[in-house]
Please model this.
Amino acid sequence: MPNNTLEARQGHCMGVSLQCFFLILILSLFLPLANAAHAQAPQPFTRQLVVDKALQLSQSPFIPSQKKVPDSLLKLDYDAWRDIRYIPEKALWRQEELPFQLQFFHPGMFYDQLVNINIVDNGVTTPLPFDTSAFDYGSNHTLPEQIPSDFGFAGFRVHGPINTPSYFDEIAVFLGASYFRAVAKGQVYGISARGLAIDTALPKGEEFPTFREFWIEKPARNSASLTIHALLDSQSLTGAYTFVIRGGKTTTMDVTSTLFLRVPVQKIGIGPLTSMFLFGENTSPRELDDFRPEVHDSDGLLIKNESGEWFWRPLTNPKALEVNIFKSDNVKGFGLLQRDHDFANYQDLEARSEKRPSLWVEPHGKWGRGHVELVSIPSEQEIHDNIVAYWVPEDTLALKTPQTYEYTLRWYAGRFTHPPLGYVLATRTGAAEGGGRRYIIDFSGKALSILTPPANVEGVITCGEGASVVEQHLEKNRYTGGWRLSFVVRSDKEPSAIERVLPTRQAPIDLRVFLRLDETTLTETWNYAYQP
Model:
C-alpha cells in the first residue's frame, strides 16, 4: 500500500512536472511576442510628446529626411501634378459625419519633402499609412506602381461647413516647408503664413524650416475646433507647434510654438506672413502693361503698438529689395491686410482679389522688446509672393533654453481689425506740378463720417530730413463719407547738372500723417517712403 501510494505520488509529480514543462514552453514562445506587442502598443498622446521630440531632435545635428520622392514624381509639371487628385469620397472622417474632414496632397513637382501624419483618437496616436487607392492619378497611369511601400504625404487640407451647413469647403491647407493658409466664409485663398522665418533678407541667405510630422486630433461630433500638432525641423533649430483651428466668418488659429536652437541664429521672425503685391492704386508710374487696375493679395501692413497707436504702411513693389523696420516692443498685433474689397478695382473674374483674406497676428501676453519687419522684393509676376512681415525679438534666443510664443491668427474679410475711429481707405500718388510728388490719402471710418465742415479737423504731417511739405489741403470726400488729405513733398536739395542727366538713387525720406480734431487723434498713422 505504501509502495503503491509512493508510486501514485511519483506519477502525480511526473504529471505535474510535465504540465509545468509545457506551461514554461508555451510561455517561452508567447512572452516575447507579448512583450513586443506591448512595446509597439500605441502610446497616450499629449502635446508634451511633440515638445520632447523637438528637444531630443535639437540635441543632434540636422539630418534631412531619408525618405525620397521618386524622380518620376519630381519631374512632373504643374498640370501633371494637379492631375493627381485625392478622391473626396475617401476623405478621413467623411463616413463618420464629423464636423471636419481631411484630404491629402500627393508628393511631386517641387513638393519633395515627405511628411508623416498621425491621427490621435481618444488620446492614442496611430500613424496614417499612405494609400495609392485614395488618389485618382488621372493621366499618370504608371505612377502608382513606382510608389514605395513606406511613402508619405506632401501635406493635407482641412474641410468644414463654413459657407453652407451641408457642404464641406476647404478651410485650411498645410503644404510645403512650414507654409499654411486659410480662408473665412466666402473667401478664396491668398496670403499664407509660416511656422517660422529664419535669416530672412540677410546676405547669407534664408533658411526654410519644415513641418516634418503632424499629429491631428480626431474631433468630437459636436466640436467647433480642430487641433493639429506639428514637429518643425531645420538646420538651426527645432520646434513643437499646436494649432487650434475654428472656421467661420472669421477663421482663427490659436498657435503655440516652442522653439529649441541647435546653433545660434542671427535673426528669427515670429508669426511670419507671406503675400503678393504687384501693383495698386499707389503705383505710379505703372510699368507693367496689364488690363487690371490693381493686382495684389494684400495692400498694406497694419501694426498696433503697446501704446495703442495704430500704424498703416501701404505696400509697394520696389525696384530693389527693401527692408523696413518698425519698433514694436510688446507689440499688440500686426498683419498684412487686403482692405480693398471692390471688384471694380481689380476686374479679375478668375483671381477674385477682392475676396482674398486679411491676416492678423495677435500675441498672447508680452513678447518683449523687438520690432516688426517688412520685406518687399521686386517682382514682375503675380505668381511670386514678394511681401513678408514678421516680428523679430531684440535679444537673440539662447541655446539650450526653450522659448515659447503664443498668438492667434485671424483670417478675415471686411474690416474686422481697424483703429476705433478712422483708417486709411486709399493711397494715391503722382508727379506734382513744379516738381516733387503729390500724395492723396482718403481716410474713412464711422467717426469721420459724422464730422462735417466746419469741424476743426486737421492733417498732421511729419516729413523727415531732406524734404519739405509745400502744399496741404484737407476736405470732406462726399463720395466716401470720409476725409481726403492732399499734399506735395519736394526735396530740399536741388539736383546738380550731372544728376539731372544721370539721376542717382537717394535714401528714401520718411513720411507720417494722421488726422486729429483739436487734441483728439482721429485716425491711424499713415507711413510712406518718399523717394527724391
